């Protein structure tokens, strides 16, 4: 990233009007929106503690951006939010992750349900290259054992590709291989694939860092649309992107080999224009990281 990416900060999108207190939040598709809350999350790889008592509420139907220098634990935090951290043999964790108040790590909460409810899009687009576009979208159904008729599948493919911002570009070649799409299209295909299993939360780990500016803007527009129906948590190194897309931000830092912590979090506009902590001000203005 260049300094220029970070020195001009555009105003963020205005937050949606808050729902009446106590009212369930409904997404654009009529399903209830879910909040995600991390409480005192601590993570280790072997003996090394990489996150120390990180607490963060990611409100329903909002976009939360995680920012901070490399190595401060953002990806680890994201993987804890959908139980991928435990796939690493040396990994351990303490704390709680609550999806609408239910602890994802409670033994009663099935692992498959946790991963279905909290989807993930990675930095490098990872469609199945030899599979068709259509099969890519439907791939998650097989993995989660969800059955659907041919016409239901057709509807789902169209709906997910539309929500992923890709339908118009691929509707005439749904049987072409996913690997033949451009990088930005592949990333949108991965978003569509994630949406097909109807997650409540979508985690995105630097989803645009391998993409050109035009594809990046298309994905940002897609994210803003999606926030109406799914709660989004995005890791980004691009401060302009954080400012453009997110409602709230959390600034992670791991100083001199200490575990990562959240230095400051809050409303994005406030964090960029009036940071409370000098380290946040230095980071968002591109003075380090
Ligand atoms: N699989 C792993 N095994 C051991 N250490 C890891 C592993 N993944 C990440 N780490 C370490 O954990 C720390 C946080 O990494 P990460 O969550 O990837 O940070 P970020 O996404 O903010 O760059 C780093 O010091 C990194 O080296
Ligand atoms: Mg990372």
Automatic annotation (TrEMBL):
One Pfam family recorded for the sequence: ABC_tran
Give the stretches traversing the membrane: none
Q: Which GO terms describe its molecular function?
A: ATP binding; ATP hydrolysis activity; phosphate transmembrane transporter activity
Q: Which GO terms describe its cellular component?
A: membrane
Extract the InterPro entries matched here: AAA+_ATPase (IPR003593), ABC_transporter-like_ATP-bd (IPR003439), ABC_transporter-like_CS (IPR017871), P-loop_NTPase (IPR027417), PstB-like (IPR005670)
Q: Which domain of life is it from?
A: Bacteria
Q: Where is this region: Disordered?
A: 1-30
Annotated ABC transporter domain residues: 36-284
Q: Which processes are annotated in GO (biological process)?
A: phosphate ion transmembrane transport
Task: Tell me which Gene3D superfamilies the record gives.
Answer: P-loop containing nucleotide triphosphate hydrolases
User: Keywords on this record?
Assistant: ATP-binding, Nucleotide-binding, Translocase, Transport
- Its recorded name reads Phosphate ABC transporter ATP-binding protein
Source organism per UniProt: Nocardioides daphniae
